[in-house]
Each structure stands twice: as C-alpha cells, then as structure tokens.
Target: UDP-glucose 6-dehydrogenase
Amino acid sequence: MRITMIGTGYVGLVSGVCFSEFGFDVTCVDIDEGKIERLNNLEVPIFEPGLDTLIERNFAEGRLSFTTDFESAVSRSDVVFIAVGTPSRRGDGEADLTYVFEAARRIAKSMKPGTTVVIKSTVVVGTCRKVAAIIAEERPDMDFSIASNPEFLREGSAIEDFMRPDRVVAGVKDERGADVLRQLYRPLFLRETPIVTTTLENAELIKYASNAFLAMKITFINEMADLCEKVGGDVQKVASAIGLDNRIGSKFLHAGPGYGGSCFPKDTSALAATARKYEAPLRLIETTMSVNEERKRAMADRVLRALGPDPVGKTVGILGIAFKPNTDDVRDAPSLAIVPALQAAGVEVRVHDPEAREQAEPLLPGVKWCDAPYDVADGADALAVLTEWNVYRGLSPQTLADRMRGKAVIDMRNIWRPEEFNKAGLNYSGIGRASEPE
Ligand code: UDX
Model:
C-alpha cells in the first residue's frame, strides 16, 4: 500500500515516518520547500527522541521520501492522509479548517479511483463529512472512501505512543475505509492493541473528548494542590492515593504551573466553541480553560511575592521554558505567560532550557539566556523550576545556594526534595506541598 502524508508538521512527520517503519511506502508532502529540502538532507525540523534514527533508516532503505510535488505523490497513492494544522481562529477560538479544506480540494484533483482519504488532523465534528463533500463536488464521479484516524501522540514520546498506543480510533463510512485502516495498523494487532471502529462523527468527538478530559484532570489536581497548601496537605500523596482507584487512574495527576502545548489549549477551546454553537455548553471545559489561564498569572504572582514588597530590579532565575520536557516546543507554555509578567513587574529574568532556546528567543525579549542550568542562579533573588527536565533533577542545592543572592526556590514541578534545599539554607516551596513529605 502506498501512502501520502499531507503536512510534515509534528503529527504528519511522526505518523508518516512510523508507517514507513511498518514497511509501507510513504511520501511526506509539504508546501514549505525549505523544510522538504532539509528533510531530504536528513535534517529533522523538530526535536523528538528517536525520530532521526527512524528517518535515516527508512529513507536509506527507500520506503520514505519527502517532496513538494503534491499531485504526483497523491496520484500514485492508495491512501492519502491529511495531517495539516488546525490552528485556533482568532476571536472565536474555533478551529481554522482552511488548510484541511484546501488539501481536500487538491487531493480531489489528482487522486486515482479507489483512494482512501484519511483525516488525521484534529478536526471538529462534522469536518470529515465536509471533506468528503468537497471531494465529491470537485470530482462527482470519483470512487473514494473517507476515514477519520485521530492521533494521540504526546510530544517527547510520540514514537512510543505511535508504536504502542492504548487504542487506535478508526472513524469510517464504508467497509473499504475500515479495511484500509485495519491493514495500516495490522502490525499493532500483534500487540493486541484495540481498534475502535466507529462513525466519522464519533472518531472526531473521541479525539476532542480525550484531550479535554485530560486537561480537566490536570486542572482538578492543580486546584487540589492549592487547597493542600492552605490546609497542610501534600498533593502528591493525595494524587497517588486517588490514582490507585482504577476508575480514576494514576496518570495526568501531576500538579504544576498549568497545562500548555500545542493541543490542550487549542482543542479545549475548539471543543467548547463547537458545544456553544450547538447549544450544549461544556461548562466543565469552559471552567477548565479559565482556571488554567488564571493559574499562570497566579504562578507569576507567587514568584513576585517571594521577592518581597519591591520586586523592581530583583533577579529571577528560571529553569525550563518548553511546555514540558523532551521537546523544544514552547507553544502555549506557561513560561510565556510567567516570564513577561515578571518582567512587567520590573524583574530581571535569567533563563535556561536544554532545547527550547531557538524557539523561545523571539518570544521572550529582554531575558538573559544561560548556557548551563547553574548559571541561572548567578545573583538570583529567586529561582523557579517551570519544566521538569531531567538535567534539573540532580542539581546541587548547595551550589545553587552559593550562586544565588537570595533564598527563594519555587519548584513548580515538584522535582526536588524540600529538606535538601532547606538544609542548604534556601526557602523551598513546591506545588501543593505544605507539609514535609516523608
Ligand atoms: C497531548 C495529549 O497527551 C496527546 O494525546 C494529544 O494527541 C496531544 O496533546 P502533548 O501536548 O504532547 O500531548 O503533551 P502532554 O504530555 O499531554 O502534556 C500537556 C501539558 O499538560 C503539558 O504542559 C504538561 O506539563 C501538562 N501536564 C501533563 C501536567 O501539568 N500534569 C500532568 O499530570 C500531565
């Protein structure tokens, strides 16, 4: 089976490369010539552990190619995936589907009869049917199938998530679409991965409902963390104990500075907008979104409070800018709200991130970038951990204390042991940990 993947963004590139690793012939298409040229020189445009090795191998063995020639790739393919971006539209928060519809129109023009068009981009309910209507309008007599195959890839562990998913969701309208998706994911059935075959609408809803639920779960534990601080509790103890209940589950219960990234903020906003449009408002999701926004501001205030009554001219060291570890992605990262709020209060900010500097530099004017984690502590009145990179876990409290001017340490990811920092003479505070853990 020959596959074309339209869009070499995060989702398209990872999915295309992984399908080639399954042994399929995959052509990845993008309109960005520079990107395609870099990929053909085996330069990977995103930081994703393991992706470079898979690209090198499958490219060398001739199963994976990159091109801007949309028409010739599509005309030779049995399956065409649409994996273009669906950004939030300014103003109403709805997903902007322009790129999806443009891709559908171009596919229609060059596809061969019998092609299955699969929508991988995250799209609001009803979009797959619209894509089918666009194709039918462009080519009234064309025989094709339409399918929805949302992804659940986490940045930083996307390859593992693709190769070992909890489930594959296949939204289909006919038997050929179902059959194509079964064939594509056959390698996973050996691992007994469940495939949920359902309608197009259900598949579209499953994707949004999953992300919205996870965003809500994180927000729940973040609010519990605030309560723990007030009443002398420890959110980590509470989270691990409630997580033992199978109905709740232990994952996505780490309290922190609020969720970020390219999916949760955008998807909750798009789902909420759809729900409002259909007059079935999702009040829990609306609240989740506003609590998460307020949280970032509250985190900045917390750092400012640690600086005392007059923060002007004080220095804060920030460890971690990416929205989570193992990615260079800074989209909707809490850091992008927290750092400017500190600067607006007159604070000098020193920052470090192992991967995100290039992406973040244009977005964070006026900060001092440091080459090594310890350097952010130099002369700092307060130090804050925003991203739980592994390299920060083992930093010596004493070295940090020696290099700092002040004593405040705000660990927004709970990666350090309070007693070790307090022993070094620092004033440690974590998230939702009022009492000392055993
Ligand atoms: C997410 C979904 O997990 C994935 O299934 C979907 O396809 C895309 O969106 P991703 O955006 O890569 O993936 O990141 P994820 O690991 O889910 O984390 C999202 C945000 O939530 C991060 O800012 C992270 O720091 C935060 N988070 C996550 C918490 O604050 N606490 C947690 O317990 C888990």
Summary: Residues 2-198 form a domain with the Rossmann fold fold (CATH 3.40.50.720). The chain has two domains: 2-198, 234-429. The two ends are 56 Å apart (CA to CA). The longest strand covers residues 2-6.
